[in-house]
Amino acid sequence: MSNASYPATRMRRTRAHDWSRRMHRETVLTPADLIWPLFVTEGSGVEDPVASLPGVSRWSVDGIAKQAKEAVALGIPCVALFPNTPAEKRSDDGAEALNPDNLMCRAIKAVRDACGSDIGILTDIALDPYTSHGQDGLLDDHGYVVNDDTVAVLVDQALVQAEAGADIVAPSDMMDGRVKAIRMALEMNGHHNVQIMSYAAKYASAFYGPFRDAVGSGGLLKGDKKSYQMDPANADEALREIALDIAEGADSVMVKPGLAYLDVIWRTKQEFGVPIYAYQVSGEYALIEAGAAAGIGDREALLMEKLIAFKRAGCSGVLTYHAPLAARLLGG
Ligand code: PBG
């Protein structure tokens, strides 16, 4: 018998048994890698399902506190809060964002009361849940989102949220210069340890639709967000955005959406070595749910394969509406 033709290297050898596959696994996912986005609505005892996000609801403040406790029990380190502001409180200038007693601030306080420091509270800095036009900032007469005046409001929004107890403020607006302005204001007001996770590379994406339903801004939005969110064709530009936000004082950066932008995550990790988080956005969640419902694959397997891809590409963690399911699967 000739042995001249055997493969010099048998890559399958280490895959032959489960113990060996576990031993050779290069990347791991744990509940500590998950950030759970939650939608808040007015009222008490309210659970209001989001039709375009099967399995996701808007909770009143009391319910948000319960969800946060569940997150703690599952080993999820952080929740991200998003308000569904009542229509009558939305305005052209989004002034409700600066009300220290707004839905968001009450939710922050309720989570803090329920969980103490067992959980991080991440809050979104942008005006879209508060404006009557659904854009993230202030408009000029032509409907263009103006940069510097918007940044001035975002700074106040960040301070209001930090006062209420936010641990991480996350500007998702894509205005220029906002990370520096927010950092300076936090420092000057004694919030030295409030972190900034900047939505540094946020694309003008078709995957945000269900989120806009959930916060009630979708029906209001006229036009698109392409004058501030990025063109999906660009990656070098994302690296410039990320470099700027790091220089301006971001503690961590986000790439959003997730799966379609793994190259940006990878390049960011290689070039800057900073903590990176992917936002597996609402449309990505809905596609997994729709795929599973259509019998295309097993929901849990589809989810876990996508989540590990973020870790493999270099993420420190993932914002995902599937966080509680993933944490349970991971034994949290
Ligand atoms: C608001 C914001 C959006 C998302 C997070 N923060 C929507 C948008 O930019 O229109 C999307 C999240 C998701 O789709 O899950 N600035």
Automatic annotation (TrEMBL):
<dbReference type="InterPro" id="IPR013785">
    <property type="entry name" value="Aldolase_TIM"/>
</dbReference>
<keyword id="KW-0350">Heme biosynthesis</keyword>
<dbReference type="InterPro" id="IPR001731">
    <property type="entry name" value="ALAD"/>
</dbReference>
<comment type="similarity">
    <text>Belongs to the ALAD family.</text>
</comment>
<protein>
    <recommendedName>
        <fullName>Delta-aminolevulinic acid dehydratase</fullName>
        <ecNumber>4.2.1.24</ecNumber>
    </recommendedName>
</protein>
<dbReference type="GO" id="GO:0004655">
    <property type="term" value="F:porphobilinogen synthase activity"/>
</dbReference>
<comment type="subunit">
    <text>Homooctamer.</text>
</comment>
<comment type="pathway">
    <text>Porphyrin-containing compound metabolism; protoporphyrin-IX biosynthesis; coproporphyrinogen-III from 5-aminolevulinate: step 1/4.</text>
</comment>
<keyword id="KW-0627">Porphyrin biosynthesis</keyword>
<dbReference type="Pfam" id="PF00490">
    <property type="entry name" value="ALAD"/>
</dbReference>
<keyword id="KW-0456">Lyase</keyword>
<dbReference type="InterPro" id="IPR030656">
    <property type="entry name" value="ALAD_AS"/>
</dbReference>
